[in-house]
Amino acid sequence: MAAKYYVVWKGRQTGIFTTWAQCQTQVDKFAGARFKSYPSLAEAEAAFGGKSIGNSGGSAAKAYKAMGSNTTGRKTVKKPKAAALTQEQITEMPFNIKIFTDGACEPNPGEAGTGIAIYKDNQLSELWYGLYHPMGTNNTAELNGLHQAFMMAQEKLAQGLSVAIYCDSMYSIQCITQWASGWEKKGWVRQGGEIKNLELIKLMYALYLQIQSKVTIYHVNGHVGIEGNELADRMSIIAIESQQQSLNLYRESYDIDEILASRRG
């Protein structure tokens, strides 16, 4: 499994840690804990403000040294791609609220819809579907889902709850967390062509800036058995079938097996 680095901004001890166990020790049941994982030490250090690994050269730093350097002379050894999150790993994450988003389009472009599944303390609490468009795209449907997740996260944060968002669209995540800042600096243009979904991305980025230090966003693979992602997917299909343009709370029975047995996107 590829190495990961965990930045803890607020916890029993702050710093950069090299294992989830070390990070969890600092943040589990710690009120208002703030932390996030990164695939490389450079990204973790940048996020932590350029500080080196560990809070004061403690166990985390020792653990990193034991792993060895990732360079040979002047050549950097490419790290393997981080392993995909599993259901077990997601369940173990100590967030009060976990929001899963998904979008579907049949065909692409074509009829599009969005779905959301919300868990509170690892128990399914809300299902949402809607934002139907008769001639949409999969990317727009996914962006709509992440946008709604941001708004829902903001409400949950106001209640003093910790929040994580899980999205299977790397495009949507990168648009907001990586590319949007550069586009904004350049006047919302990009070299090589137009920025698709620009107005939606502008709205999302403005909201993201308000919550980015308090919310952790994870990419998950679709259709690999992660319950929240699968439920959000089924909601996106219900959005298409019902042609609901507004976002609606799913009011049928929350029989998870029955919902999962329905048509998927």
UniProtKB/TrEMBL annotation:
It holds the Pfam family RNase_H. PROSITE patterns: RNASE_H_1. Coiled coil: none annotated. Monomer. Residues 93-241 form the RNase H type-1 domain. GO terms for molecular function: magnesium ion binding; nucleic acid binding; RNA-DNA hybrid ribonuclease activity. Its cofactor is Mg(2+). The keyword Secreted does not apply. It comes from Vibrio sinensis. This is ribonuclease H. It catalyses: Endonucleolytic cleavage to 5'-phosphomonoester.
